[in-house]
Request: fold
Amino acid sequence: TLCIKNKYDENLLFRYKSLVANKAWIPCENLLHDIEKNYINIWKEKLIVERLLRKAGIIEQSLTNCKNDWDQVFYELLCRNFGFKVNAMAFEMLAKSLPLKYIARHRDSARQTQALLFGQAGLLDINVHDEYSKALYKEYLFLKNKYQLHPIDKSLWNFLRVRPQNSPHIRLAQLSALLQTKPALFSHIIETGPYENIYNLFSVNADVYWSTHFIFTKTTQNKSTKLGKSSIENILINTVVPVLFAYGNTKKNDAIKEKALNMLEHLPPETNIIVKHWKERGLEAKSAYDTQALTELKNVYCDAKKCLSCMIGDKILRQ
Reply:
């Protein structure tokens, strides 16, 4: 036991208590402007690695469940992110119920790939009567029996408060186009060089049927079926970068980890309430690298009042 007694600056304790008692958006927001930008940048470098290592731990647990199959791990996380929060759980359950190996066996047939995904999602119905959906239903019945599949419950999908372009049907059609052309997508990503080439891997168009539909049978005006720029960027940030970093960490390959970090630097900054609040306090993000680091800072340190573990908090307390 070390008895400190009164051999410390009492102002230090006062400053600490003032920080943790502050109910502002971040405890140090009135003092943040005193911290040098270069010092904050050094902290952001550590934050981004911390964030990716934490995600890598979760991904490596999934790898054990997937019997060390990196393509399956990537596929499951990719599907979850195709749900874009609203339908993330349903997409994840779909991926777990439909192993990637079954999709890969039918990569030569766009119709069978679509049948597997829509059927396993519980969205194919014997009562749907247009030619496209009837053809998918017929294919799915055959594949369902072949692989002894059990579709997830249709009620898991959320159709309310979802923009038409984000509807489960459209997202499934885009996912189908992506997996049909590149089932072992993660293997392609590892072998692909520049960021632009990886981005282009995700530039796919859904079946032409979906240019005039948001759900089966009901027609709409003609629209693009291409996976949008913001959607691709979201997938790169939340799927490609974490799995790539986890792969590099597991294989002890610094070049692959650097590739993941470099991708974040090339991606534009995310737009959300956390990024907006940081900008109002003088920290403007120039890339996804910055937004991911600032998100980690807010969620892990500021919200938990972990000022003693934060480089900015430590600097303020020592001044």
About this structure: The mean pLDDT is 94.
